[in-house]
Amino acid sequence: MYHDLIVFGEDWQGLPSSTQHLIKQLTATRKVVWINSIGLRQPSFSWHDVKRLWFKLSARNKQPQVNTAQGYPQQQTNNNHFYLINPRTIPAPRSRFSRFVARHLLLLQIKPIIKKAHLTSPLLWTSLPTAVDFSGYLGESGLVYYCGDDFSGLAGVDHHTVVLREQELSQKADLIIVASTTLLAHFPSERTRLLTHGVDYQLFAEPAIRAKDLPNDGRPIAGFYGSISQWLDLDLLGACIKKLPHWHFVFIGKVMVNISAISQLENVTFLGERPHHLLPSYSQHWTVSLLPFTDNAQIRSCNPLKMKEYLAAGRPIVCTYFPAIEAYRGLVQIANNSNAMVEALINSQYLQYLPDFSGALRSVVEHKSWKVRAQQLSNWLEKL
């Protein structure tokens, strides 16, 4: 018998997170009630937050459409096993009273769906510390905390509130799963397991047609995809870009910080967001993949999803140092200043001509699919 799951995670409609990749695999054998993000901070009056609030309030609970034309094949599920809830509640409540109100407001929305789903011995799974307030209220047989980030250093969260909730969650959880070795030390060893990220190997390794909007002016291309956020070292990038006018630098993703220092440079292109399943049509065809991170608590604890995707794409990789990169020493070039990054980028032009260089990169992740990761996860869940 498999435990069904009640999952508090990120918004299912967004680009697929590690939680989404894993849960997608598990829907083949169990029912899942997925609750979209209940928030890690209280909203401000910014335009971004107002738009997000409107989306939350206007969204309806409906099954995700299984349609590859929509651009998110990673979000396909067995619709007979999957129930999606768009919550209306108070984000990251602080006081005891606001936590009480937020919990009961959301329980009114969740319990009818759980009843409709006829769940079997459900486990409560949360990727968000703020969901600890629902532990013991949903008829769950166990509590699982999946931790993919160091929330004490994560940008865009109410750190004090979230850290307190995480401390409470780590005491209550029957199983804690972490995505990096750095995070292992944060939690009780007897209840904590390491599950590093998988990869959609077939998607990123099989040849993809070059994207029509990928610059094609004869210059080598250094490319990055992901959130354009505080964890990117824009100062390092700016210095490097100015030293390599004969290179083109391409960025794919949502811009969440001021990029004016580099966006106006002639050899820089920001393409905006692209669906996940189209990313190989870029990463397989640029010269080198970039991971230019800053050195902070969030990055020191991360195990970026895109690292294995970059490896599967088979292009040379240049990155700044962070602990998770240790597993790939000898396969990637590490550069922590602009001179070193310029040298690494220039050298990368020749790596691709080495015999079976791409094959060597791909072989490292060929057997590390999300399906394999989910099988290990399932074994742990069934022991609860």
Furnish the topology, listing elements before pairings.
Elements: E1 5-8, H1 18-26, E2 32-35, H2 47-58, E3 82-85, H3 96-117, E4 123-126, E5 142-147, H4 159-172, E6 175-178, H5 181-184, E7 192-194, H6 201-205, E8 221-225, H7 234-243, E9 248-252, H8 260-263, E10 268-272, H9 280-283, E11 288-291, H10 297-300, H11 305-313, E12 317-319, E13 333-334, H12 338-351, H13 357-365, H14 370-381
Parallel strand pairs: 1-2, 1-4, 2-3, 4-5, 5-6, 6-7, 8-9, 8-11, 9-10, 11-12, 12-13
Structure notes:
- The termini are close together.
- 34% of the residues lie in helices and 14% in strands.
- Helix 1 links the parallel strand 1 and strand 2.
- It contains 14 helices and 13 strands.
- The longest helix has 22 residues, at 96-117.
- The radius of gyration is 21 Å and the shape is globular.
- It is α/β, with parallel strands linked by helices and 384 residues long.
- The strands form 2 sheets. Strands 3-2-1-4-5-6-7 form a 7-stranded parallel beta sheet, with helices on both faces.
- Helix 1 (18-26) crosses helix 14 and helix 7 (234-243) crosses helix 12 (338-351).
- It folds into 2 domains: 5-198 and 369-381, Glycogen Phosphorylase B (Rossmann fold, 3-Layer(aba) Sandwich), CATH 3.40.50; 201-365, Rossmann fold (3-Layer(aba) Sandwich).
- The protein has helices at 18-26, 47-58, 96-117, 159-172, 181-184, 201-205, 234-243, 260-263, 280-283, 297-300, 305-313, 338-351, 357-365, 370-381, and strands spanning 5-8, 32-35, 82-85, 123-126, 142-147, 175-178, 192-194, 221-225, 248-252, 268-272, 288-291, 317-319, 333-334.
- The model is unreliable at 44-57 and 61-75 (pLDDT under 50).
